[in-house]
């Protein structure tokens, strides 16, 4: 099981029997929020993106803590995620970034959620289905070509302001290559920014109020910080990570990871030369070895693609590595050079142990993905 832990100190002493768990370090979350807020221009509000269970960090507990820090704007992916936050007492604005069926409109009004209008047709369908005014932000497609009405469809967008049941509170878009430093991507991002503000200005010229504007997610703020917007949507950076290892950014803006990942040694075995380990027999001992079975596997969200890559882990403050194929519920590590290792010892997969730190960015890169996906995949199995 991976268990979400809200800890300030010595969590292992409190939960001695957990087989695998995540620790959530709220002091680091506070540091990241304050650091990122310092980058925002005057008048720009911090919007915390807590979709996908807050990137695996626990949506309700994370949002509750952020409420205590004074954060009053949140973004989720689905109406159900928004409802869960409201049921647990989260205060402030909650924007649903994804599509919601008009048949679920009662949830939007009952729980005071703001819905993204995925395009003009979706907005009109919401209007037709509504018995009470429904709050929306209109999404503009400035080049990502996913959700959103094309930003040059000015009259179609303007026509939404005549819909009686739509309370248009804002307008936004999404920058699809804001993380890239390639010149072609920088030019594309600048074109997206220009298209967005051209549309909102044309609406204003018609006497229409587009409401609060927002355009940047984490990398948008990091690389294009001075845009005149009402919100900045922080996801991965708020959790103290970058989508991939970026030494330059990590040195300039050293955010602190909020999540660490741990498991335990179950048993220790002696391996003789020529003996193999795990499914597929893909690891063969070349010399006498001491190995340990560890209580975490791909059903806990640890990618099986990390098998046979010498992925580092930490035991008793020392670095060793995974050997053989990662299994559904277990993996095997080499403890030959850690003779003091014993069953029950903690194995750190992400986080700090002793003088060593293992970051999620490096683990994700080795798995052939981005940090965002890796963190979201870390699952919780009930006892």
Helix content: 25-40%
- Structural class of the helices, strands and pairings? alpha/beta
User: Strand share of the residues?
Assistant: 25-35%
Q: Look at the structure and give the CATH class of the largest domain.
A: Alpha Beta
Give me the secondary-structure topology.
Blueprint: E1 2-7, H1 11-14, E2 20-25, H2 26-37, E3 45-49, H3 51-56, H4 59-68, E4 73-76, H5 79-87, E5 93-96, H6 105-110, E6 114-117, H7 120-129, E7 134-141, E8 149-150, H8 154-159, E9 166-172, H9 183-205, E10 212-214, H10 218-223, E11 231-234, H11 247-252, E12 259-271, E13 276-277, E14 283-284, E15 289-294, E16 312-315, E17 318-323, E18 331-334, E19 346-353, E20 356-358, H12 360-366, H13 371-377
Parallel strand pairs: 1-2, 3-4, 3-11, 4-5, 5-6, 6-7, 7-8, 7-9, 9-10
Antiparallel strand pairs: 2-12, 12-15, 12-19, 13-14, 15-18, 16-17, 16-19, 17-18, 19-20
Helix pairs in contact: 12-13
In short:
The protein is of the alpha/beta class and 383 residues long. Helix content is 29%, strand content 26%.
Give an overview in words.
Helices cover 29% and strands 26% of the residues. With 383 residues, the chain is an alpha/beta fold. It folds into 2 domains: 202 residues, Alanine racemase (TIM Barrel, Alpha-Beta Barrel); 119 residues, Lyase, Ornithine Decarboxylase, Chain A, domain 1 (Beta Barrel), CATH 2.40.37.10. Strands 3, 4, 5, 6, 7, 8, 9, 10 and 11 form a 9-stranded parallel sheet that branches. The chain has a 6-stranded antiparallel barrel with strand order 12-15-18-17-16-19. Strands 13-14 form a two-stranded antiparallel ribbon. Helix 12 crosses helix 13. The chain starts with a strand and ends in a 6-residue tail after the last helix.
